[in-house]
Amino acid sequence: MRPLEIAAYNQEMVHRAIILSIALAVPLTAEVHPMTLRQAVARAIQQNPDVTLARLEEENARHAVGVAKDPFSPRVTVGSGLAYSNGFPLSAPSIVQAHASQYIFNRQQSYTVAAAKEQVRGAGFEVASKRDEVAYRAASLYLDAERAARVLALSRKDAESQQKVLETIQAQVAEGRALPLAAKQAAYNLARSRQVADALDADREYSETALAIAVGFSADDRVRPVEEQRTAPALPASEEHAVQSALDSNKDLRKLQSQITAKGLEARSERAARLPRLDLVAQYALFAKFNNYEDYYRSFQRNNGEIGIAFQVPVFSGPGVGEQLAQTQTEISHLKVELSSARNRISADLQQSFRDVHKAEMSAEVARLDLEVAREQLSVNLAQMQEGRLGMRQVEESRMVENARWIAFYEAQYVVEKTRWNVLRLTGDLVPAIEAMP
Questions:
Q1: Residue 170 to residues 160, 182, 184, 187, Cα–Cα distance (Å)
Q2: pTM tops 0.85
Q3: Which helix (H) or strand (E) holds 307?
Q4: pLDDT tens column, 32-41
């Protein structure tokens, strides 16, 4: 092997070693963070990248106000000019010269400042909207992870019951009291239960990882829901009240209204381009002595200055102003259509959300009653087994039925809570409701 090839090979091996060391170090730094729903949502609001980006956009809009207001502040520049002069001085080079300017009355720029301030207000609504969106996403992922953990625990219990059933049937087959087919069927049921449990375990890992990313941790970490007594969130007094509350306080609607206001101010600024303007102007110069001024002027002084107001009246602005104004009016019309569509969409979504809550609560009640029947049946079977009238196989089968009913009950409770949080998301009450939790 040539020296260059040896060097390249060694370099490649070093790179592989570095990558391997990083890969081995990542699992060591991964952590599992137990959190309540309130803690997860609070951290997501503070650390989620989407909220951070929205806050940076708001800060950027705030800086834009300063840029728009800058012409109304004095601008002063200081410089110097030196030149050799022979004969009559053709210019007035100065040792020191200063210029100052400032807007005094400029209606066009005033409307630009007002539009920039309104954009800051709209950026604030965007931050609040993004915060609500992130809070709902974190709450949904939390419920997903919580549901996956509960169903996984029940699936493992189901697998344990299937194992006991298999052992009982194998003993019966060995005694000649059952066919080998029954043992094969029980083995199949056990394998299927374990497969379901493994799939649920993978779903739980994915949900906990997704929740960790949503709250601001790395993809190597997990956020694990903790056991807590939590009731479903309360809904508004009525569907009509919820719709009205959403239309009055929805952040997306208020952001669109703010954008319409800002565009209106831009239109007024464009119309104001035809109005007169007043500017403060001032300058000072310290002339040099070696420019032959004394030879040609009776009176010469080195310190010279002036201050005054410049008055400008636009006479002909060209067709661009009118076209720009028409373009802004078109954008305002576009935003108004978006606002009307958003209002209709929010009303329809809220009505559908209330229907979803009603359906989920009915399903939860059915699941609860079904669970009670399964639990009562298990109690009866346990009592009969103690009396010697029922075998272990029948008891374990009834226990598996109870586990299935528990899963259905948890699924129904999960849907009820998620649909209720969705209603509060649309009304803008989700974050206050979570922050009020103990």
A1: 15, 8, 9, 10
A2: no
A3: strand 303-312
A4: 999 999 999 9
